[in-house]
Amino acid sequence: MPFRLPRLPRPSRLSRPRAVAVCALPVVALLATAAFAPLPFALAQPGMTANVLGENRGDPVITISGADTRRTSGQLRMTTIEATGPDADVSLGDVLDGWFRTDRAVMPRDAVYPNGDSVKEIEKHNAEEMRKSQDTATEAALNHLGEQGDGIKVTLKLADVGGPSAGLLFSLGIVDKLDGDGSGGDLTGGRVVAGTGTIDADGKVGAVGGVALKTQAARRDGATVFLVPKAECSDAESELPKGLRLIPVTTLKSAVSALVALEKGQGSVPAC
Questions:
Q1: Which of 5, 59, 175, 249 has its CA 20 to 30 A from that of 197?
Q2: Residues linked to residue 51 through DSSP beta bridges, in sequence order
Q3: In this structure, what DSSP letter does residue 2 have?
Q4: CATH T-level fold of 48-80+118-264
Q5: Exposed/middle/buried for residue 219 (C-beta within 10 Å: 0-12, 13-18, 19+)
Q6: Cβ contacts of residue 183 below 8 Å, gap of 6+?
Q7: Phi/psi at 176 (nearest 5 deg)?
Q8: Under DSSP, is residue 75 helix (H, G, I), strand (E, B) or coil?
């Protein structure tokens, strides 16, 4: 005997949208939760720059005693990036916005801040890295000039900046104040020169990260030349502002040589 399903009442026009709306509520709630839930990322943007040949908050960045120094013109600007703090909540909306902007970068939080460190521990670590960088930058500059560190005292002072990435610019600033281009001229040639890079006592320049954002900070603050660790040329070129010339460097010596060649218009100036 055939079985026939009972005829069900036909839904009204109003019942369908209501059903769809009711079913959609959990999905909307899920998307809203995902959009505003904290994610393990940090957002970075171009930070401050500082002229190491000048003053920072009323104090000279570089003070040298025990040797004659020269009056400089032009600028050597170290560059920074600013990142959201380790305790900041970064949502999916923030991440998506950062991915589609050239003046923002999205980075894993652990790549910016060591996992598990408190804000105070991170600040202490960055301050210690800056102190070591300053000592090494001084040693590299004096080694480059053939000077003895026991006869020349260099004090470096830069407020509210941590990490080792200003090493190259500190060394160049010391060289410019003590020797310039070696023939009485400024190492900068009167230009606004910016850059980034770590440095060791032998003058080797190391990569730092965030160079695409640092080039934007440099151009914003008037730089026309940017010294970049050679290994990070492609990153620096990715969002290079108009009017900013990249010069790749591997050592303090190569950075000095490139600036002298640029100033005098003689010899080759490296390019990415």
A1: 59
A2: 77
A3: -
A4: Ribosomal Protein S5; domain 2 (3.30.230)
A5: buried
A6: none
A7: -65, -40
A8: strand
Query: Strand 198-199 to strand 192-195: parallel, antiparallel, or no bridges (unpaired)?
Result: unpaired
Boundaries of every domain in the chain: 48-80+118-264
Q: Which helix (H) or strand (E) segment is 215 a member of?
A: helix 211-220
What does each of the 272 residues of the chain score in pLDDT, given as a tens digit? 333 333 434 444 444 444 444 445 444 443 444 455 567 888 889 999 999 999 999 999 999 999 999 999 999 999 999 988 777 788 887 878 777 788 888 877 777 776 666 778 878 888 888 899 999 999 999 999 999 888 899 999 998 888 899 999 999 999 999 999 998 899 999 999 999 999 999 999 999 989 999 999 999 999 999 999 999 999 999 999 999 999 999 999 999 999 999 998 878 899 99
270: Cα within 13 Å, side-chain hemisphere: 19
Distance in angstroms (rounded) separating the CA atoms of residues 183 and 172: 16
Do 263 and 243 meet the contact criterion of CB atoms below 8 Å apart? no
Helices then strands, each counted (H, E), the chain: 8, 12
Amino acid code (one letter) for 81 = I
- Report whether 85 contacts 108 (CB < 8 A): no
Q: What is the pTM of this model?
A: 0.82
The rounded distance, in Å, linking the Cα atoms of 214 and 217 is 5
Q: Is 194 left (phi over 0), alpha (psi -120 to 50) or beta?
A: beta
